[in-house]
Design a protein that fits this description.
Strand content: under 5%
Largest sheet: none
CATH topology: Growth Hormone, Chain: A
CATH superfamily: MFS general substrate transporter like domains
Number of strands: 0
Distance between the termini: 5 Å
Shape: globular
């Protein structure tokens, strides 16, 4: 649910630049958490409303999105002021390739971008086949399995709203590597909690671990997003985020295919056929 809106990516370079322009370094983790929480929540609500309207008429399912987008566009144009940096900075032409080389020459930024791409890769694959996994492992219906997957989304929402604040407070106390440490610990916690989620034989136990894994997965991005603003020059915030968004889009695009191929080989042709008949794999929205 949260991953869906993040993977779209069209607005990400602009959002990264505006977060850096409008907010102090000491509060960027918290702000990024609010941004990501808003994206995830609105995506879930939007998909629910679109599904209900689409059941009445497919035109309504698309039409209401266009109407909301138009209203938001007008609100942004009327209420969102140009940041001071944009008006004071001397405009000059810069080579796109030079900017890309500069962004990719920052090794810490490259590590953050690669880590983010792997995180989205895993989350996409898990959300794509999570319903089929739950149905097959615990012998439950699709509706119940879908509801349980949303537990992961609620956990991710809690993580998104928590880790950015924690990293901001630690950074304000002089721990300059706090954003990296908090984001890295969230990554490790996700790996620790996801494994028992997949191996648990008890549904309630799997649910507890899934909730904790969701918190960890959601908690990765706010501190690391803020960290990229810390280490990249302000003129290159948009370029750096565009690089990350491109790699994330690629990783989320190939994740369902890779997960499907691996699960077919590990589960055998019979398991793959059975899963295919019971539930056709589709991204969970």
């Amino acid at each position: 649910m949260v991953e869906e809106c993040r993977a779209k990516g069209i607005d990400k370079p602009v959002v990264a630049s505006l977060v850096g322009d409008y907010f102090r370094p000491s509060e960027r983790g918290r702000v990024y958490g609010l941004v990501l929480a808003g994206e995830g929540t609105c995506t879930a609500i939007g998909l629910l409303v679109a599904g209900e309207l689409g059941a009445v008429s497919w035109r309504l399912g698309f039409g209401w999105l266009a109407a909301v987008g138009l209203l938001l566009g007008i609100a942004v144009a009327a209420l969102l002021r140009e940041p001071l940096r944009g008006s004071m900075e001397n405009a000059r032409r810069r080579s796109v390739w030079r900017d890309l080389r500069w962004v990719l020459s920052i090794r810490t930024n490259v590590v953050l971008v690669v880590g983010s791409s792997f995180g989205y890769f895993f989350f996409t694959g898990l959300s794509t086949f999570g319903v089929a996994l739950l149905c097959g492992r615990f012998q439950i219906g699709q509706a119940v399995a879908t509801l349980l997957i949303y537990v992961l989304g609620v956990g991710a929402l809690i993580g998104v709203l928590s880790t950015g604040r924690i990293a901001d407070r630690l950074t304000a106390r002089g721990h300059i590597s706090a954003r990296m440490m908090v984001g890295g610990m969230a990554f490790l916690a996700a790996a620790v909690f996801v494994l028992p989620t997949l191996l648990a034989d008890s549904l309630p136990l799997a649910l507890v671990f899934a909730f904790l894994a969701g918190i960890a997965l959601g908690g990765v991005n706010p501190p690391l997003n803020a960290a990229r603003l810390d280490i990249v020059h302000s003129r290159l915030w948009g370029t750096a985020e565009a690089v990350r968004t491109t790699l994330v889009s690629i990783s989320t695009g190939v994740a369902p295919l890779v997960f499907g191929v691996v699960s077919t080989h590990l589960g055998g042709s019979t398991a793959g056929t059975s899963a295919g008949h019971s539930l056709s794999p589709r991204p969970l929205r």
